[in-house]
User: Which sequence fits this backbone?
C-alpha cells in the first residue's frame, strides 16, 4: 500500500474488547511503522494506556534520540467519543474506554489496532487514511475501495514488506466515469477512450486495475458555476453544472475530459494532476475578408484626400476664370442660347481637368487668347495628376492584394473600447473565470460583451457557428489545440491576436472531492510522466491534429468580391443615374416639342 512520507500516523492498540481475548501490545509493531516515517517532528498521543505507559514512553524517547526524530508524547486517560487530532500526529490508544465505537477526524492517518473486529468499530473522516490491525503477531491492513457501483474490502499482510510500497491495485473495482461527447482531447467509442486525455486515462486504468462504466455529461458540458437566483441554484441541486456538478453530487467517480485547473472547480472536486499545459488564444476574423465598400478610398488617409480635393477644385476654378476672359470660339458665337453655351463649356472644363489629372488623352482647349496660359495650366494638371494617381495606384494594388493588414485590436481587453463582442465556450474554464471573477475588467467583459449576446456562449466544437460569430465581429477565446484546429480549417479567414488572454494552464482530469483514489490516481499519472508515456501520447496527438490542418497559400492573394464590390456598386449606381437622366431628358424633350407644336398650330 502507498505510504506518503508526509502522512500522519494514528496507532491504536486495544488490549481488550468485550470478552474476546486479544493480541498483546507489541512495541515492535509500533517501531516498525515509525521507522518508515520521514524525519520530522510529530505528536504522539497515548490514550488509555495505563499499564504500558512508562515502557512506551521510554522506547519512543530512545527511538527519537537514536534516529534524531522528534516525537512529542501526549498522554490522555480519557476522551470523548469523537476525537480530532493535529496533522502529523501519532495516537496510541490501548482501549475504547466506555464507548462501543470511536470517530476520529483527520486526514492521511494510519490506524493500528489489536484486531480486525476492533478496527471495524473505529470510523475515520478524512482523506488518505490507512487502517492496520495485528493478527497472529503480524501487521495487516484493511483496505476498503468504494465507488459508485460497489465496495471491495481486502486484507493485506504488510509485515514482511515495506509500508511505503507502490500499491495502486484497486482489484477490479468498477468506477463510474463521466465524459463529454464532443471533447477535443477525449473521444469515447462505446468501448474505450481515445485522444490525448482518453489514452492517458486508459493507461492509468491498466496501472490501477479497475473497470468502468462511462456515462455522458448530464447537460453535455464540462461544468461551470450554476446560476444563483434568490439564494438557490437554477437547474441543478449542486453548485456546479456539467461533469463537475456530477462529481459534486457524487454521481460519478472520475470526469475524463481536458479540464483546466480552476480554483472554483477545485473547491468541489479533486484535480487529478496535470497531463499537459495548454496556452489559451484569442482570434478574430482576418482583416480583408469582409466586404470593403471603401476599399478604393482606404489607400489614403482622410487628410490626404482633403488636400487632393482642395487642390483639384482650385485648379478647376482657375480654369473657369480663364475661360471667361478667353475669346469665345466661332461655334459658341453662332449659338443662339447663351445658357446652353455656358453649360457645355463648363462640362468641357471639368472634362479637361479630369483627363489632364489622369494623364489620359490630353488635349488643349481651343481658345484664341491666352494659349500659353492654357498650356501651363494643362502641364500643371498633368504633373500634379501623374504623381497623385501613380501613388494612388501603387497603394491600391498593395492594399487590395496584401493579407498583411494591421489587426484592429491587439488583445481581448481592447474590445471594451469598440463594438466587438466576445464568444466563450459554454460550460468551459474561460467562461467560468470571466463570469465569476471580481475584477472590474472581467465583469465588464461579461456584462457588456458576453451576457445575452447571440454568440456569447457557444459549443466550441461547432466550427460553422464560430465562423458566423467571427463574421459578426466577435472575438473567440479557446485553448491552443481547439483554436489551432479551427484556424487550421479556415487558415485564410482567421487571425490570432498577438497577446494571449491567459497564461498557460495545467490540463487534466477531475475526481470526487476527498476521493480515496485521488492520491493513487495522481501517483499513477506521475509514473506515466516519469516513463515518458505521456510525452509520447502528446507527440502522437499533436502530429495527428496537424495532419488535419490547412495552410493559407499565395493563391488566396487573388482579388475577391470583398475588395472589388465598390466597382460593381459604382456601375450599378451609374446605370441607375443614366436611366433617371434619360427619363428626365425624354420628358423634357417631349414637353418642348409639344409646346413648339402648339405654338406653331396657334400662330396665323
Assistant:
Amino acid at each position: 500500500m502507498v505510504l506518503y512520507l508526509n502522512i500522519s500516523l494514528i496507532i491504536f492498540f486495544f488490549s481488550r474488547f468485550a470478552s474476546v481475548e486479544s493480541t498483546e501490545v507489541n512495541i515492535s509493531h509500533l517501531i516498525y511503522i515509525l521507522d518508515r516515517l520521514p524525519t520530522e517532528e510529530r505528536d504522539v498521543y497515548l490514550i488509555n494506556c495505563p499499564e504500558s505507559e512508562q515502557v512506551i514512553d521510554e522506547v519512543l524517547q530512545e527511538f527519537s534520540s537514536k534516529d534524531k526524530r522528534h516525537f512529542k508524547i501526549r498522554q490522555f486517560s480519557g476522551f470523548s467519543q469523537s476525537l480530532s487530532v493535529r496533522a502529523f500526529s501519532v495516537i496510541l490508544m490501548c482501549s475504547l474506554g466506555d464507548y462501543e465505537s470511536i470517530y476520529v477526524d483527520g486526514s492521511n492517518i494510519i490506524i493500528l489496532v489489536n484486531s480486525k473486529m476492533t478496527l471495524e468499530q473505529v470510523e475515520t473522516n478524512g482523506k488518505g487514511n490507512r487502517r492496520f490491525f495485528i493478527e497472529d503477531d503480524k501487521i495487516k491492513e484493511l483496505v476498503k475501495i468504494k465507488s459508485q457501483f460497489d465496495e471491495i474490502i481486502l486484507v493485506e499482510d504488510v509485515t514482511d514488506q515495506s509500508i511505503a510500497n507502490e500499491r495502486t491495485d484497486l482489484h477490479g473495482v468498477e468506477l463510474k466515469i463521466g465524459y463529454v461527447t464532443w471533447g477535443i482531447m477525449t473521444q469515447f467509442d462505446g468501448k474505450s477512450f481515445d485522444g490525448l486525455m482518453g489514452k492517458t486515462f486508459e493507461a492509468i486504468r491498466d496501472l490501477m486495475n479497475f473497470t468502468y462504466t462511462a456515462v455522458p455529461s448530464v447537460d453535455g458540458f464540462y461544468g461551470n458555476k450554476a446560476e444563483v437566483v434568490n439564494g438557490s441554484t437554477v437547474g441543478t441541486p449542486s453548485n456546479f453544472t456539467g461533469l463537475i456538478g456530477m462529481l459534486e453530487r457524487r454521481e460519478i467517480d472520475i470526469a475524463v475530459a481536458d479540464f483546466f485547473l480552476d480554483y472554483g472547480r477545485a473547491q468541489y472536486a479533486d484535480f487529478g494532476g496535470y497531463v499537459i499545459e495548454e496556452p489559451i488564444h484569442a482570434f478574430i476574423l482576418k482583416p480583408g475578408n469582409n466586404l470593403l465598400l471603401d476599399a478604393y478610398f482606404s489607400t489614403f488617409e482622410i487628410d490626404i484626400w482633403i488636400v487632393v480635393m482642395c487642390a483639384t477644385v482650385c485648379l478647376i476654378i482657375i480654369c473657369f476664370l480663364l475661360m471667361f476672359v478667353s475669346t469665345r470660339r466661332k461655334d459658341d458665337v453662332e449659338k443662339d442660347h447663351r445658357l446652353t453655351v455656358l453649360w457645355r463649356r463648363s462640362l468641357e472644363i471639368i472634362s479637361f481637368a479630369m483627363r489632364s489629372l489622369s494623364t489620359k488623352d490630353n488635349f488643349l482647349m481651343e481658345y484664341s487668347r491666352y494659349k500659353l496660359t492654357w498650356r501651363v495650366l494643362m502641364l500643371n494638371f498633368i504633373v500634379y495628376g501623374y504623381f497623385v494617381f501613380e501613388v494612388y495606384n501603387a497603394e491600391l494594388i498593395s492594399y487590395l492584394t496584401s493579407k498583411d493588414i494591421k489587426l484592429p485590436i491587439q488583445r481581448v481587453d481592447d474590445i471594451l473600447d469598440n463594438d466587438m463582442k466576445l464568444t466563450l465556450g459554454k460550460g468551459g474554464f474561460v467562461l467560468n473565470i470571466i463570469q465569476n471573477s471580481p475584477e472590474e475588467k472581467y465583469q465588464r467583459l461579461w456584462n457588456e460583451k458576453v451576457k445575452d449576446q447571440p454568440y456569447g456562449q457557444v459549443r466550441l466544437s461547432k466550427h460553422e457557428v464560430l465562423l458566423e460569430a467571427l463574421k459578426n465581429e466577435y472575438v473567440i477565446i479557446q485553448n491552443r489545440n481547439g483554436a489551432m484546429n479551427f484556424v487550421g480549417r479556415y487558415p485564410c479567414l482567421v487571425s490570432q491576436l498577438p497577446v494571449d488572454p491567459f497564461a498557460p494552464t495545467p490540463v487534466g482530469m477531475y475526481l470526487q472531492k476527498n476521493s480515496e483514489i485521488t492520491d493513487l490516481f495522481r501517483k499513477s499519472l506521475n509514473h506515466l510522466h516519469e516513463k515518458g508515456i505521456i510525452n509520447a501520447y502528446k507527440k502522437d496527438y499533436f502530429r495527428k491534429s496537424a495532419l488535419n490542418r490547412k495552410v493559407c497559400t499565395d493563391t488566396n492573394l487573388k482579388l475577391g468580391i470583398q475588395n472589388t464590390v465598390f466597382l460593381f456598386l459604382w456601375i450599378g449606381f451609374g446605370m441607375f443615374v443614366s436611366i433617371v437622366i434619360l427619363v428626365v431628358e425624354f420628358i423634357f424633350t417631349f414637353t418642348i416639342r409639344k409646346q413648339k407644336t402648339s405654338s406653331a398650330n396657334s400662330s396665323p
Remarks:
- The two ends are 131 Å apart (CA to CA).
- The CA atoms of residues 434 and 442 lie 5 Å apart.
- The chain is about 40% helix and 20% strand.
- The first strand starts at residue 11 and ends at 12.
